[in-house]
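Aggregate trends can hide what the representation actually does to any particular protein. In the encoding step, the backbone of a single protein was reduced to a row of integers, each denoting a local shape. The record that follows shows the chain in one-letter code together with its fold in token form.

***
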Amino acid sequence: MATSSGIVRVPHSDRAGTGLDDWEAMDPDSLVSGTPVQRGWLCDEDEAAGYLAGVWDCTAFVDRPGGYPVDEFMLLLEGSVVMRMPDGTVATVGPGEAFVIPKGLECQWEQPDYVRKIFMIVGDPVGEGADNPALSRITLPELAAPADTGPVETRRTWFENATGRMTVSVATHAGGQTTGAPAPAHELVHVLAGELALSSGGEETRLAAGETAYVRAGTMIARRHAPGTRLLTARYVP
């Protein structure tokens, strides 16, 4: 069930599925092998827009090759995924790594064992996107900080979908605090290093390295970053 709170601490859960609900079985016709059992927890959902964000886990399976049905950002918490493309290209993603699959990309999902992930799904139209190479490949953002940069402000946008409403970026903050302002987008914010404090309505959510929060668009929010805080953020403008 999706929560109605403006700021939500996203549970990473564990293999026991604490806090995760049973989800319906996958269509057997969509699978090459496996009888996957999937569970999940949603921090937000907009069925009309085809938008979902939350936590998902599932047992092993291999799906049939085809066009990926959505734009999806994923951060793996446990397990690994092998993505196979028609030209023989293979992308393997493991625990602690993030990746983005663009809507319409021809690929095949191969999951040799249990997987748990944080995700954001967007159902925007595919569009042309001729000048956007991220729409024809799997994007794997670089999460580690560059060597010897110090706590300086850096930001790189690794992915933008065809409509420009979904982006995935990695940023390092020199430290400081912002004043309260409405969040312009839905955000999944994962702390790679440092500390982040999110304040809204007199309440503060503090996040250390390895923790994740969800911010709903329109939430009045102030942010405080410790020097050198590095964030992985997936955003969607509704």
